[in-house]
Amino acid sequence: MGLAKRKVCIIGGGVGGLTLALSLQQRGIPCRVFEKYDHFQHHRTGFLIWSYAIKILQELDVSVHEFGAPLEFFEVFGRKAQPISRMPIGAVSREHGAESYEMNRRSLMQAMSEMVGDDLQAGKSCVAVDSSDSGAQVTFEDGSVYEADVVIGCDGAHSVVRKWVQPAAQLNVFNAGGWIGVMDQHPAALKPNCHMDFWEPSIKAGVADIGNGQARWYVGMNGRVPDKSSPIKTQILDAVPVLPDVLQQCLDATPESEMVEVVGADLPPLDPWFKGRVLMLGDAAHATSPYAGMGACSAIADADCLAKLFSETDDWSHVFQAFQDERKPAADAIVKDSRKSLNLSTGRSLLKNWIRDWGLEHIPEKQMHQVVEDMVTGQ
Ligand SMILES: Cc1cc2nc3c(=O)[nH]c(=O)nc-3n(C[C@H](O)[C@H](O)[C@H](O)COP(=O)(O)OP(=O)(O)OC[C@H]3O[C@@H](n4cnc5c(N)ncnc54)[C@H](O)[C@@H]3O)c2cc1C
Hints:
Layout: E1 8-11, H1 15-26, E2 31-35, E3 46-49, H2 51-59, E4 68-70, E5 73-77, E6 83-87, H3 89-95, E7 101-104, H4 105-116, E8 120-122, E9 126-131, E10 136-140, E11 145-148, E12 150-153, H5 161-165, E13 172-183, E14 194-200, E15 203-211, E16 214-222, H6 232-239, H7 245-253, E17 260-266, E18 274-275, E19 278-280, H8 283-286, H9 295-312, H10 316-346, H11 350-361, H12 365-377
Parallel strand pairs: 1-2, 1-12, 2-8, 5-14, 12-19
Antiparallel strand pairs: 3-7, 4-7, 5-6, 9-10, 10-11, 13-16, 13-17, 14-15, 15-16, 18-19
Helix pairs in contact: 1-4, 1-9, 2-9, 9-10
The site of flavin-adenine dinucleotide has 34 residues, from helix 1, strand 2, strand 3, helix 8 and helix 9.
């Protein structure tokens, strides 16, 4: 039997699971997605999706422009909140065939869920998976069981599927964390189609235009995590050495109830990403800390790669191995880069920060082009 006649069961309707479902549907491969939540509140944040992943979404007819704004410049501010770099994201992205976008994640997830349609069932939380020679099985919290030919775990950093595939794997939880928010206003100090990133001692913060009159922002602390017993704004004001106007405007415009707490975590490199008829992708297989802003793009690239492989052969065990061989080097590199990015942007050494700021201010044009090219192409 060819895979075109098989049933692929996807656990998790986040960015990886929904991209996979749309990619399989486009190729005529039957699939079913089960998502834990029956609402989109857990997606009430924003993210930056680089050109290479935007291309994949556009090929699936996702109208990315409705849920975000093309990013023209990524502006970096140094240890004293002084401008040190203006990265030409828009120009370099267009050289590679698609804009990079700052996006409203909740709107994007809602639209992609609607596109997946009846193949998505929300409010179904997977509690266990199993695999035998004849098929794979998923058990849900409500006691129901679903049978499929293969199961793909796209259930994120706290994956239930991973507990079966790699029972010993543990998330590395950092002593670093913060908050993210989306506001229904465009702060006066933020230029359209811009992302402003602040690299101050122990702090990385950012604000970006996500279109439709909205902006997203975040504050990440290195060396401490959010304290639930204290007001968020007090913690932020206490942690940020030089508070930029634009960040103050975000704090003023976002109620604390809308601020989403985050603690940085990642996975050690796992091998294999599959067991029997069950495979993991995205954060389930290679969760990364958010500091390089690449995890969602990586999940999208995973989904695209897997759907292509499924359409080429009916041998799922070959597909699983080929998928891991193709995607693991890039995914593992992102996890490493993200850790480096945390240290580079939030370092506490006066000298190292001075050298970093000077280096970025004086980076030759050709080298800057290369840095940006690596980001927009996911290299
Ligand atoms: C603060 C922050 C900022 C980030 N910024 C960026 C960025 O700018 N660019 C970027 O590319 N990446 C960014 N990332 C990383 C990115 O968010 C993740 O890498 C990405 O969401 C992973 O996609 P995924 O589909 O694997 O998992 P998720 O997006 O986490 O989706 C998993 C889905 O599975 C569902 N689920 C979980 N458990 C179950 C279950 N038991 N049964 C059924 N369903 C289940 C969840 O509800 C969820 O919908 C950021 C991350 C954070 C925390």
